[in-house]
Amino acid sequence: MRLSASLLAASALALTLAAAPAVAQDAAVIARAAAIRDAAMNQNIALDYVTQLTTRFGPRPAGSKSEQDAAAWAADYMRAQGFQNVRIEEFPLVGWERGEESAAIVGDHPQRLVIAALGHSPGTNGPIEAEVVRFTSLEALNAVPAGSLAGKIAYIDAGQMVRMQDGSGYGPLTRIRGAGPGAAAAKGAVAFIMRSVGSDEHRMPHTGTTRYVNGVVPLPGFALAAADADTVSRLIGMGETVRIRLSSTAHTYQTTSQNVIGDIVGRSRPNEVIVLGSHMDSWDLGTGAIDDGAGGAITMAAAKAIAESGRRPARTVRVVLYGSEEVDQPNNQGNGGGAYLRGIGTAVEQHVATGESDFGADRIYALGLPLGAQGTDFARAAGQVLYPIGVLPSPQPELHGGSDVGPLVEAGVPVFGLNQDGTRYFDLHHTADDTLDKIDPEQMSQNVAAWAALVWLIADSDVDFRAMRPAGAAAH
Hints:
By secondary structure, the chain is of the alpha/beta class. It has helices at 5-18, 27-40, 45-57, 65-80, 138-143, 171-186, 226-237, 289-307, 335-344, 377-386, 406-410, 425-428, 441-459, 465-468; strands at 84-97, 101-106, 111-113, 115-117, 128-135, 153-156, 191-195, 221-224, 243-248, 251-264, 269-279, 315-322, 351-356, 364-368, 392-393, 417-420. Helix 3 (45-57) runs antiparallel to helix 4 (65-80) and helix 8 packs across helix 13.
C-alpha cells in the first residue's frame, strides 16, 4: 500500500486534534504514536540490518557456526543502535547438517528427482532403493496395517497447498511433514517422501523440520518439489510400479544455540517488559531473509524508532532474536523461547505483552489484540493510529503468537498480532528462494511503522491486558 508523505502528515494532525483520551494518559499519547509511526515509515535500519545479516552470514542453520557468529554480530549491532543490557543467552542444542542428497526414479526410464531432506532426518547410510506406495493423507497412511510397508517407501501427496492471505493453508500440510516419518516407520517403511509444503509450482523443494519419536527421528524423510511429486503421482496413477533410489548423508551433532536480547529501558516502570520476538536461525537452502531475518529487522527498527522519538516510554521494550526456532529436538523444551522463559523465572509476571514477527516482510493488514481487549478504549486508540497505514482491527483476538513467544504466552503473557499479507510467503518459505531480493523495502517500512506505533501505545500507557481477560478464560 502506497501512502504519500502529505497524507501521513495530515492523518497525524487529525489525530492530534480530534483523538479522544483513549489510552490511560491522554490524546497526546495517541498523537505521539502517530508521529512515531510517520517517522518510522522513513527509517532505513530494518533494510540495513537484514541486508548485512543475510549477506555476511548467509544461511544460519540452528546451532551452526553461522548462526552463532550472526548472533555475536547482532549483539554488537544492537549496542551500536543504543540498546541497553544487550546479552547473549546460550542453551544446548542438537544440530543438524544436510550433507549431500539425491533421488531418482529407477528402471527402464530413469528420471532425476529434485528433493530436500527434512530437517533432523537421519541419513540413508548408503543408497536406499525401494518401491513407492502412495497415500493422499496422513490418515490414510496411519490406517494401513503394521508391517504392511516393509521394505517400501511411504509417499504422501495431499495436493498443493492452498494459497491464503493469512497462511492458513499451511497447517493441514505441515503436520504431514512432522508426523509422516514416524507414521511410515510404524508401518515398516524404509523411508518417507512427501509433496513439499508450498504454494508455488516451481521445481524447488521446501524443507522443514520433522519430529522426534522417543528421542529419535526413525527414518530418512524427504520433500519432493511440486513438479516431481506430480510426476511420481501420475506414474502411479497410470498403473506403473515406481521405484526410487534415495541417498542422504545428513547427520546430527551436539552444539549450542543462543538468544540475543536488548532493551530500550523504560522511563518510569522499567521492570514492566514488552517482548518483541523473531528468530535468528534459518534453513540452509536460502539465506533466511523472509524467514526470519526480516522479523528481527522489523522489531529492532521499531524499538529504535521508539527510542529516537524524544521520549523514552514508561515501560521497557525488549527485542529478542531467538535461536533455533526452526528445528525439533529429542526432548523439546521450547528451544529459544523455552530458554528465555526459564531464564527470566518469576519475572514473567512483569511481562505485560508480547508479539512476534515471523511471516516475512509484506504489508500488515490487521491487528489482533489480546483476548478481552476488543472494543476497549485501547483498541479504539490503536485503530486510529494504524488505520492511516492500512491496518484494520481484527474482531478475533490473538491467542498464540508464534513458536518463539509461545512459551511466554503459555505462561500467561498477553499476546498481540500484527497480521501480515502471506499471499506469497509460502512460495518462498524454506526454499533456496528465501533471499534478500524478495523483500519489498516499502512494505517492510510499513511493518516497522505499525510495530513502532502499537508498541509505543502499550509501552507508554498503563494498559493491563491481563485484567481485560474474561473471567475464567485461559491465560493464553
